[in-house]
Design a protein that fits this description.
Layout (H helix, E strand, L loop, with lengths): L2 H34 L16 H26 L5 H12 L12 H14 L18 H6 L13 H14 L3 H29 L4 H8 L3 H9 L4 H16 L3 H12 L7 H13 L4 H27 L21 H17 L3 H28 L5 H15 L8 H11 L4 H12 L12 H23 L26
Helix pairs in contact: 1-2, 1-3, 3-8, 4-6, 4-7, 6-7, 7-8, 7-10, 7-17, 8-17, 10-11, 10-12, 10-17, 11-13, 12-13, 12-16, 14-15, 15-16, 16-17, 17-18, 18-19
């Protein structure tokens, strides 16, 4: 066997080992979730129920141990230089154990089901919360399982997603287990869309497909919170990525329509329109004024038409326009502007007796203004050619997450997928890589956010930074120091599988 054959065989063996390690971790997470996941208040099937303190303690040990094994396997897998085919097989292995698990690390899926039941029964989801549902009717068990903050909170989601939730409730009569699994099918469809878009965007940007898949799809943060936690951020991201890809290929009308549909899941997808506009303006012909006008207006008009049409077709009304800020009322410790505003407000209350809430709100708004200014600057850099437009979109989404008044761990996925497909190095790639490994620890499998979660996440951040620096400084397998990050184009040409 020649040197090349030996190298490919070694890669295949290492890939297989890490695949099995990660699958074992994923299975442990799922099994632990049956004991300590985000279990419903009432499951008429008797499947997702508590089993006492001994089983609970064992469940936490299994879930956290499995989570750590999954994160380690992911990190090691990224350094193995696996092929695209091997990475897709690994993704299937790591996803499969989570498919039948209870909701993990979040109760949001219960809100989705309850809101779908509200739409089905004709309630205005944009003025009242799930507490209006009949406890004995469709969605009643889901409403009882909604996190305390959201019980009386109107839906911040777009009509397209709420109608998907209504379809699931209608098909399952709102029964907890099949309804959650129905919502998970939508999340799995979103994962397939993300994989497709990632591969094609990576080709468009000369990026290794396997490296893009490793960070953008095999990512433990995505597996835990999109597959396990069933968050609709996966669907928003998949539709947004698909729209951006089509725009890059000249089909900007269809692409803008898909982004408009993504906005009808969650509104942050609208940021993509600005950078699609840069692509459209560059490709347009004629005077500069005409090209600029087309870039600034055309994608937004198409997406706006889709948003209006979707709202009329879904019949939920335009109340979503007024509920986009409801999430900001709930304090999340990952939000820098909220933490700073809360601290400053409390300090002024102690010193001058003032109400801390207006101070916190002002700092949150300032954070959003700074984010908008930075996003505008990134768009300008993309327009002038200093930054590639889709890569600038990834950085813009990262800025938006960092400075938003409400930040959850899975929000990082908005930017991670874009950066994974467009970037082969740099601080942004390193940041999302380390944070993807760290933020899975921020919430418990039960969905709560304990103080030790931040400690664990901080320790993982430190370890990740140390590993990144070691890889940059220490030549490995004949590569120069600093040539790549872990998992980044170890085999540039996506070496063929040894099978």
């Amino acid at each position: 066997m020649g040197a090349t054959g030996a190298r490919i065989t070694g890669v295949w063996t290492t890939t297989r080992t890490h695949r099995r390690l990660g699958a074992a971790g994923s299975l442990a997470v799922a099994l632990g979730g049956w004991a300590v996941g985000t279990l419903p208040e009432h499951d008429p099937w008797g499947l997702w129920v508590s089993h006492g303190p001994v089983v609970t303690a064992a469940g936490y040990a299994l879930a956290y141990g499995g989570l750590t094994v999954l994160v380690v396997a992911w990190w090691l897998y990224g350094r193995a230089g696996a092929s695209v085919r091997d990475t897709l097989v690994t993704l299937a292995w790591w996803t499969a154990p989570l498919v039948l698990a209870p909701p993990l690390h979040s109760a949001d899926v219960y809100s989705y089901i309850a809101q779908g039941a509200m739409v089905l029964e004709g309630h205005d989801v944009y003025s009242v919360g799930p507490s209006v549902l009949d406890p004995d009717g469709p969605g009643g068990d889901a409403a009882a399982s909604v996190g305390g903050h959201w019980t009386d909170t109107p839906a911040p989601y777009g009509p397209f997603f709420l109608v998907l939730a209504r379809v699931v409730v209608r098909a399952t009569d709102g029964t907890i287990v099949p309804a959650v699994l129905g919502m998970r099918l939508i999340a799995l469809g979103a994962l397939v869309l993300i994989v497709w878009a990632l591969r094609n965007l990576a080709r468009e940007h000369g990026r290794s497909e396997s490296a893009a898949l490793w960070l953008g799809a095999l990512n433990p943060l995505l597996l835990i919170h999109v597959v396990g936690g069933v968050h609709n951020d996966g669907l928003m991201t998949g539709l947004m990525l698909a729209g951006v890809l089509l725009a890059l290929r000249g089909r900007w009308i269809t692409g803008s329509a898909l982004i408009g549909l993504a906005m009808m899941v969650k509104s942050p997808a609208a940021v993509a329109l600005l950078f699609v506009g840069v692509v459209v303006g560059r490709a347009a012909s004629g005077p500069v004024v005409r090209r600029v006008a087309k870039g600034l207006l055309a994608p937004g008009l198409v997406a706006g038409a889709v948003a209006v049409g979707t709202t009329f077709l879904c019949g939920t009304g335009f109340g979503w326009l007024g509920t986009q800020s409801v999430a900001a009322r709930i304090h999340t410790a990952l939000s820098l502007s909220s933490d700073l505003g809360l601290g400053l407000g409390e300090l002024l209350r102690l010193l001058a007796g003032t109400d801390p809430d207006p101070v916190k709100s002002a700092v949150q708004n300032l954070g959003l203004l700074i984010a908008l200014a930075l996003i505008a600057r990134l768009a300008w850099h993309a327009t002038t050619g200093r930054t590639e437009p889709v890569r600038a979109l990834g950085l813009a989404l990262l800025v938006l997450v960092a400075l938003s008044p409400m930040v959850q761990p899975w929000y990082l996925l908005w930017a991670t997928a874009v950066i994974a497909a467009t970037t082969s190095g740099g601080r942004a790639l390193g940041a999302v890589t380390v944070l993807s490994a760290a933020l899975v620890y921020e919430t418990q499998p039960s969905g709560s956010t304990p103080p030790y979660g931040f400690v664990l996440a901080g320790l993982v951040c430190v370890a990740g930074v140390v590993l990144l620096r070691r890889d940059r400084d220490a030549p490995e397998r004949g590569q120069a120091p600093g040539q790549r990050l872990p998992a980044d184009e170890a085999l540039e040409a996506d070496a063929p599988t040894a099978r």
